[in-house]
Amino acid sequence: MRMERTLSIIKPDAVGRGLIGEVIRRLEENNLKIVALKMVCMTKAQAQGFYAVHKERPFFDSLTDFMSSGPAVVMVLEGENVIARYRELMGATNYREAAEGTIRREFATDIEKNVVHGSDAAATAAFEIAYFFNSFEIVG
Ligand code: ATP
Ligand code: MG
Q: What angle do CA 58, 88, 98 make, to 5 degrees?
């Protein structure tokens, strides 16, 4: 049993489609505890910094355009095994391959515009949380 934190983003496609409440409802329904939350409008440069691990990928320019195209909601989730639990709730990157009942399967429209982000490991979670939040913005 590991206490972990992970970064969640409700991406601009989902905010634009009015899905903030739906995503948060699913987090709460699955006992994924929110310990920080705010809305951000990333610049292109901020999106490039956030997704720097993907800078050599062919979709990098399009992905960072998309992530800086409008407001997003960033959250820190905390709990036992929360990194894996939240990724399970999100579903596979490609919504066509995502399991039935997952957020991406139900709401994504595109492999890129896939509604939510979640950190994939403890080290990336630490980097990603610090990218958006200082310690005073994360509760108890
Ligand atoms: P995220 O990091 O956003 O939680 P992920 O870990 O499931 O998603 P990654 O491989 O880290 O997937 O890709 C980051 C994001 O880049 C994806 O969520 C998606 O928005 C976009 N992406 C990934 N693969 C492709 C692709 N082949 N074509 C277009 N966009 C892609
Ligand atoms: Mg990823």
A: 55
Q: Is the CB of 106 under 6 A from ligand 1?
A: no
Collapsed DSSP state (helix, strand, coil) of residue 140: coil
Sign of CA dihedral 19, 24, 30, 32: positive
What predicted TM-score, i.e. pTM, was given to this entire model? Answer: 0.97
Top mutation candidate among 51, 93, 114 for ligand 1, by most atoms within 8 Å of CB: 93
Span 66-100, pLDDT tens digits? 999 999 999 999 999 999 999 999 999 999 999 99
Q: Are 131 and 10 in contact (CB under 8 A)?
A: no
Judged by DSSP in three states, 111 sits in coil
- How far is C-alpha 101 from the geometric centre of its chain's CA atoms? 17
DSSP H helical ranges for the chain: 12-16, 20-29, 44-50, 60-67, 82-90, 103-107, 122-132
Length reported for the chain: 140
pLDDT in the model for residue 19: 98
Pick the atom of ligand 1 nearest to 67's CA: 20
